[in-house]
Amino acid sequence: MSLQVLKFAWPDVAALTLNVVPPLDASSHKGTMGRVGVVGGSKDYCGAPYYAAVSALKFGADLSWVYCSQEAAIPIKSYSPELMVTPFYDDKRLGDSNTEHLHETKQDFIDESAEVITSSFPRLHTMVIGPGLGRHPDVQLMIQAVLQEAVSKDIGFVIDADGLNVLTTKHSPSVSGYSKCILTPNAPEFERLASATLAHFEGYVTNDKNNGGEDLNVKAVQYWMQQLRLNDSDTTTPSSTHETSLDGKLHTTKLSATSPADTTSTPPLTTTEAVLAKRVYALSVLLGGVTILRKGEVDIIASSRVGLNNRSSSQHKDDGPSTDAVYVLYGKGCPRRCGGLGDILSGITATALHWATPRAHLLPDLSSALANNSNVHQQTHPIEQTQTIRTITTTTLDSITPDPSSTDSSSTTPSKPDLHNALIHACIFASTVAKRSAEMAFADKGRSMTAPDVIERIGRAFQDIYKE
């Protein structure tokens, strides 16, 4: 098996990825294009959940809910009449001495609060968990319960901001192997996730214990932990016409599809980007193949098929894919880093997740398509069998009803839709629209640009990209 690191720009994938977008149809009803729930918002942070929820609407979702603290509910309601806002806990009960000393009562409080959200699952297509959530331990326990129930109900979700901190706690819920989970960390959040994941597996490797009954390759776990610890000095700077192993050793096999840097507008893959791409992929491996969109100057997207487990897939160790890929998406964006940009992306991504899932059968395999594109910078890294924790075969959507509006019967369409591939397409489209929106806002506002300026331009950016 081999790993491809592919660096590209939106024009290289536009014709492939635009099938994420379902056509507008007069026969559709309210809610068809997406019912998104945003879980976040606390007394100190009211803007973040609003940005995520309204961005989902501006991107094309029909309905958007916000589940927040009681103190945040009225301010968020006042921001927009388009959002449905439901408080799921009373701020005054957080850390209350009456509940601290009565374990049963505190647990009741946590369960009742979580149930406000989980009881609404039948109306939601996807969720965003984390914007403005805060870090109170009681709230983190509520979110753990919500995540566990979302996994059991097969609801897709995007975890961002303070939601990612829930995954780093000692008693964090296991989203490992859940195919409809997208994590969207920025640089510091990625490092915290990496540290927490390494700490978890240190105990597993040290004690030589079976992790939750999984039959894992301990040497492979150690190997991917090593990859997650990589830094720039650990990897030899690769040539654009050579393959390099994940250990940084250069091989002399020429890449047939690699083009000189002066023939493409996409800058060559840098050493820093290549190392970071491997680290993002390694974290996806250790988390069982969840999709990770690591935000930055370039967005790096991985959805590993070499992971610990996958709740939605048929698992066979001998018929997995011969290649896997990590995607480095180059886009101009803007140099401004005001608050709220990540919240905007999370709302957009949750909507794209809902769109891509039933349309996965229309989305061609990106790694194969990009490998034959002369504009794409790429490296190939061999993955030996000893490095395979467990091969996850193509995650299929047998339980998902295909979008009836799609009639394409092209021979290139996979016979069984690939959920990993679909989520990659969703992340690429969401990232592209978010960055184009920010680019437009910065061109108009310059240094005074803030998140509302970006939200205002989501529609224009979408139309500029999609040209419906």
Automatic annotation (TrEMBL):
Residues 13-465 form the YjeF C-terminal domain. It holds the Pfam family Carb_kinase. Its cofactor is Mg(2+). It is an enzyme of class 4 (lyase). It comes from Spumella elongata. One of its GO terms (biological process) is nicotinamide nucleotide metabolic process. It comes from the Eukaryota. PANTHER family: ATP-DEPENDENT (S)-NAD(P)H-HYDRATE DEHYDRATASE (PTHR12592:SF0), ATP-DEPENDENT (S)-NAD(P)H-HYDRATE DEHYDRATASE FAMILY MEMBER (PTHR12592). InterPro entries: CARKD, Ribokinase-like. (6S)-NADPHX binds at G132, N186, A187, P188, E189, F190, E191, R192, D343. Belongs to the NnrD/CARKD family. Residues 256-268, 397-415 have a biased composition (Low complexity). It catalyses: (6S)-NADHX + ATP = ADP + phosphate + NADH + H(+); (6S)-NADPHX + ATP = ADP + phosphate + NADPH + H(+). Coiled coil: none annotated. Gene3D superfamilies: 3.40.1190.20. ATP binds at residues 295-299, 333-342. Its EC number is 4.2.1.93. Residues 232-268, 397-416 are annotated as: Disordered. This is ATP-dependent (S)-NAD(P)H-hydrate dehydratase. GO terms for molecular function: ATP binding; ATP-dependent NAD(P)H-hydrate dehydratase activity. Keywords: ATP-binding, Lyase, NAD, NADP, Nucleotide-binding, Phosphoprotein.
